[in-house]
Write a structure and sequence with these properties.
Layout (H helix, E strand, L loop, with lengths): L7 H4 L7 H25 L4 H22 L20 H17 L2 H30 L1 H7 L17 H6 L2 H21 L17
Helix pairs in contact: 2-5, 3-4, 3-8, 4-5, 4-8
């Protein structure tokens, strides 16, 4: 499978009638992610409880991504080990789980809607682009993989072990750092809003003074 960060070789392979929109979304999804992220942070009203629940869920999503990245040989094979034995796109599933976690952490309905819109558009475009590329690159082997056939082993080793070096080579540490930064910013906003004590700028009035 091909990681979510590899958009450029994928978008050219899309051949359906909506390819222009799909290509545009696939190419711009990282930039759009920053825009939507800024809006979510601005709207967010995180609390200690929402940060705990959302943070745990987001961490699980990133854990799935790390697991997938540690098995992935991008553009060289149809990976069949690790989570790819059960999920066609574990990286994108992990991203969606992370997004759901951050939506919960934000504790704001409008922010959650924005996260849903972004994930629905960006992930769908990325999946369609990736599948078009894989069908073009691997043909029948990819179709057999999607049909969950157990008879094909030449395209990938189902017994391959997780490799941290492979995950690093696939630049998954960037997603982990991005998640950590997002949670930290939400934590700072929760602190500023008084979720862990008096809100910033609040003046405490003592009795008699």
């Amino acid at each position: 499978m091909v990681p979510s960060s590899s958009a450029s070789p994928l978008v050219a392979a899309v051949s359906d009638p909506g390819r222009a929109v799909v290509c545009l979304l696939a190419r711009l999804r990282v930039s759009l992610g920053f825009v939507f992220g800024a809006l979510v942070l601005w709207l967010a009203q995180p609390t200690a409880r929402s940060l705990l629940l959302g943070g745990v869920l987001a961490a699980l999503g990133e854990g799935l991504r790390v697991w997938a990245a540690g098995h992935l040989n991008k553009s060289r094979e149809v990976t069949m080990s690790g989570p790819y034995r059960w999920l066609a796109h574990p990286l994108y599933v992990g991203s969606s789980i992370m997004g759901a976690g951050l939506a919960i952490a934000s504790a704001n309905v409008v922010a959650a809607v924005l996260v849903t819109i972004y994930l629905g558009a960006a992930v769908t475009a990325a999946v369609r682009s990736e599948e078009a590329f894989l069908r073009r690159a691997f043909g029948e082997r990819y179709e057999i993989y999607r049909a969950a056939s157990s008879g094909v082993t030449a395209t990938g080793d189902k017994r391959r072990r997780f490799s941290a070096a492979r995950a690093m080579a696939n630049r998954e540490h960037r997603a982990a750092i991005g998640l950590a930064v997002a949670v930290l910013l939400l934590l700072l906003k929760a602190t500023y809003n008084g979720s862990f004590g008096p809100a910033a700028g609040t003046r405490l009035v003592r009795p008699g003074g």
